[in-house]
Structures are given as C-alpha cells and as structure tokens.
Amino acid sequence: MPRKAIEITLTKEQREQLDTIVRSHSVERRIAERAGIILSCAAGKRNQSVALEHETSALRVSKWRKRYAKYGLAGLEDERRPGKPETYGVAFRNRLLSKLETDPPDGMSRWDCPTLAEQLKASNHAVWRALKKEGIYLHKARSWYTSTDPEFAEKSANIIGLYLNPPFNALVLSVGEKNSAQVSTRESGYIETGDQKLVHAYKRHGTLNLIDALNAATGFIKGQTSKTKKREDFQNFMDNVIQDLSENKNVHVILDNYCTYKKNDEWLNRYAGRVYCHFAHTSASWFNQIEVWFEILSCKVLKGAGFSNVAELKNAIEAFIIRHNQSAQPFKWRKPESADSEIKNNISNL
Fold this sequence. Notes:
Keywords: DNA-binding, Homeobox. The chain is an alpha/beta fold. Helix content is 41%, strand content 17%.
C-alpha cells in the first residue's frame, strides 16, 4: 500500500506569501519554483501530478513538501553545505597573532606584512585582511608637505621624466643620505621630563651616517656608511658606484638640496660629461625615490630597535640591504590626489 504524502494546509497569509514569491521578478528562480510546488501541493494534488506540472521529479516534490511542512517558509532555502574548509580562519588568525609576539628575522626590528606572509606561507592579502580585522596597522603613516619652489613645475617634469622615460644607455640613480642615525640602547620603562612628559629611556652610543644609491630601473641598493658627512664622502661613494659601469654609460643622479651635493664641479669634470646631477625642488624630498627606501629601512630596521655600538648598527643595515637586493623591484612611484588647498601654491607655478 503506497504511503500517503504529508498534507499541506495554508493559511490566507501563508498563501499570499507564496503567491508573492512566485510572481516576484527579484526572487531567485529556484525559490520561486519551490514556492510554486508548495502551492500545488496545498491544492491537494499528488506528488506525481505536481512533478509533471513543474517538470521535475516526484522525489524532489516530496522533499520540498516535507521541508515546508517542518520548517515553513524557511524550509525553501538551501541547507548549509559543509564546503571546503576555511584556509584563513580562526587557526590562521591565531598563528598570525602568535607570530607577531616573536622576534622578526635578523636585520629587521619589526614585522611587516610581506615578511609575515613569507613566514606563514600565506598571501600578502590574507595577512593584511587578518590584521585589518584585528585593527592592527603595522606601519601606518601619512604625511605631505607642499613645495613653494618657483621652479616646481620644471624640476618636477625633469625628475618624473627620468623615472618614466630614462635616456637611452643611461643609468638613473636616486641618491641620498640618512644622517646621524642614532646608535642607542633602549632601556625598559619611562622617565619624566621637565615639562612632565613621559618618554622612553635610552642610552646613546654614537651616530652613523648612511649614503645610498637606488637604481630606479631595478630597485637595487648600493650603500655605504661613514662617520662623517662631508663632500668628500659623497664623491668617494659615487666613485665606487661609477667604477662598476662601462665608460660609455651615462649616469643621471637625482639629489635633494643638501649642501654636500653642491659645488662638485671639479669632481664632475673628471667624468667628462658622463654624470649629470638633477636637484629636486625645495621642501619636496619625497620626489627623490631614495626617501622611500629610507622610510622602509627606518620601519624595518631602526624603529624600536636597540644597538649597543656603531658596528652593530652597521651590520644590521648591511644585512638588510643584502636581504632587500635579493628580491629588489623598482618602486611604482605615485602620489594620491591632493586637496585643492594643498596644491594651490603649486598650480600658480605651472
């Protein structure tokens, strides 16, 4: 004897709800089809008749008849499927937060997103999303300074042209100095200053000067440390950079307006017109890509770190340069759009 199907009895309100779903143009087609099946079942039709009417199987009609009888309108929705296990779920979050509690790799003072991704065998975006969800921003900093140089447009076009369309058979270098990097040991705790401010306690062990050259085409860094910051130090550094190049290759050097980069005519004459210096406009060191590199160096090596002597700081900087050059890439140099009030002085110079 065949089993009798579950009887569907609808109230006026339930029937109106189902009719609305069937007529709707915004409801998913599968939900509208299931609502139509229930209306047919409520009319007293057998499963086989309903299946023929809706061009489906009797088993499918029986399934949705039972689901609606048990759960009502919610029974027309799909059941949650197990699916693929989460790749970046709670376990990944816990591993990430645990890794942040450990010391970063040698040559770095703080963790950054790419290094965390490398250590956790995950993508940069996965790490970034997990950190953002926890409200953690490792190196967030924003600043902008408007130049009032009357030659802003001309100098800008010159430097941007070197970045985007360098001369044929020429090397474009972005050169700069990080002066007087402090060698200090950070003590635990705080001290109170005369104006009643609390500051970190530390002990100084001297300073170190760093001059670097960034190859704008490859992102490769060549650096040199020194105890002084004289014009001769700059010239000696550039001699070391140029000696590795062929004699028929010109060098375009992008510099800021630091005094040691000026009055080098006698040194330039030694290279018989092979070396050209391009000076960024005043109050706009951000035009020099080496400043991007110095910010990376500061965030990853210097900030929050402690060094007991000059040699220790020098070794940390050199180790980071080697690490950087192993996967060096050129910077995608750009600046976000500024508000009108920030650029009004520059527009008048164009």
